[in-house]
Amino acid sequence: MIFRGSRPPAPPVPRPWTGNARDHLTEASRLLAEREPWLRAFTHVEPPVLEAAIHPGAGPLAGMPIAVKEIIDVAGMPVGLGSSLFADRVPTGDAEAVARLRAAGARVLGITTSTPFACGTTTVTANPQRRSHTPGGSSAGSAAAVGAGIVPVALASQSQASTLRPASYCGVWGFKPTHLRLPRGGMHLLADTLDDLGVIAASLGDLERVLPVLADWRPTEAPQGLRIGRLHLDDGGLTHPATVAGVDRLVRSLDGVAGIDLVDQDPLRAFDQAVRGSGRSCFDIFAAESAPILAGYVAAGERDPRLGEMVSHTAGIGASGLAQALAVRSRLQRQYADLAEHVDLVLAPATTAPAPPGLASTGCRRMPATSSLLGVPALSAPWLSVEDLPQGVQLLGFAGRDEELLAAARLLHDTLTAQSPTRSARQHLQESR
């Protein structure tokens, strides 16, 4: 691909885990020195310990360096929740997800940036693909650290768009589970209806390694005759024309492939009609459930304007507004679940466009928020390139069927790679015009 704009000397490339801890930590040290001064993905970095690299220990993830979003507890490291109010906070215990990864042999390399309490306006972190653009949020640092090749896996979170959006913008893989499928213990929670642990990874293989450690995982294969439907979700009419064209090319590349059935039926179109504008309901739920906690932070001196806006918004909609948003959620969940009679997964852009310029905003949350509202598993796959920037393709599965979604993603990824083995899937879809 041809890169333009303000860039580091060499375009960052995500680095999947090879199993060689020494090589990966040595390269991580070099990349931290070279890129972290402008990337600013980390709030804290543990010095890569050579002894840990030489003796990585045992377990399926032995020696794998990981990063952790700063709303997820890591014992003995500063985890400040993205706010100066908690700048000196050092947990004494690991979050459940961190404990599981460590028990499998993973090593926490550092803590990554988050917008304040995972709901604030922005962070200082740059996009590794183009430093003048946002990496997305709120899991900005996790996506940037993986996108810059420093770590193969980072823990994130999502209440609306906070895993899928930065993964899309930074050209990496992002996974948001069925609601409550991954452990939330030791995370800073705001909205119980929506909050979930997320995972950002350099490759699909890295997700396949890590997710069985984080959850009780049932090995499965993609269904024979995988049925795929296409949705627009709640895009607000904002989807970039080049993004639409990229998804069109992807769909055309799958047409006629053995074992894949592209579905276009009335229930899909009806759901697309019903889901329009639902981002507002998702925000209403998030704001209303978060407001009691956020009001305390605002009173204590937190200055991020988004927090006060959410508290004011909640006062404006009242209890009836929350009840109405929850009713919309229930109705859409039932209608979406009915689509399982017709398709095994649905496909859409992960975001309305690639990462916008500037760091004042983390970008549009509309499309990736849909999976949080529905409580279903979703994946952002780095298969598109728009205006020389990466953009994800979103795959949504059905509640409780996370393993099937990952297996389907593997089938699709292998299919796209086989069509152009000398190129990445993203390059292939950019060039197959």
Give descriptors for this structure.
alpha/beta; 11-stranded mixed β-sheet; 433 residues; 13 helices; disordered C terminus; disordered N terminus
SSE inventory with pairings:
Layout: H1 21-39, E1 42-45, H2 50-54, E2 65-69, H3 96-103, E3 107-112, H4 140-147, E4 153-158, H5 164-170, E5 173-176, E6 196-201, H6 204-214, E7 226-230, H7 241-254, E8 260-263, H8 266-275, H9 278-300, H10 305-338, E9 345-349, H11 369-374, E10 378-386, E11 389-396, H12 402-419, H13 425-431
Parallel strand pairs: 2-3, 2-4, 7-8, 7-9
Antiparallel strand pairs: 1-3, 4-6, 5-6, 5-10, 9-11, 10-11
Helix pairs in contact: 4-5, 8-10, 9-10
Note down, in words, how this protein is organized:
- This protein has 433 residues and is an alpha/beta fold.
- It is 39% helix and 14% strand.
- Strands 1-3-2-4-6-5-10-11-9-7-8 form an 11-stranded mixed β-sheet, sandwiched between helices.
- β10 (378-386) and β11 form a beta hairpin.
- It is globular, with a radius of gyration of 20 Å.
- Mean pLDDT is 92; it is low at 1-10 and 428-433.
Offer a concise description of the structure.
The chain is an alpha/beta fold and 433 residues long. The chain contains 13 helices and 11 strands.
Oligomeric composition of the shown chains: single chain
Number of strands: 11
Shape: globular
In which order are the strands of the major sheet placed? 1-3-2-4-6-5-10-11-9-7-8
Q: What's the order of the H and E elements?
A: HEHEHEHEHEEHEHEHHHEHEEHH
Percentage of residues in DSSP E strands: 5-15%
Distance between the amino and carboxyl termini = 14 Å
Structural class, judged by helices and strands?
Answer: alpha/beta
Classify the helix fraction into a percent range. Answer: 25-40%
Mean of pLDDT:
92
**Model regions low in confidence, pLDDT < 50 over at least 5 residues:** 1-10, 428-433
Number of H- or I-type helical stretches: 13
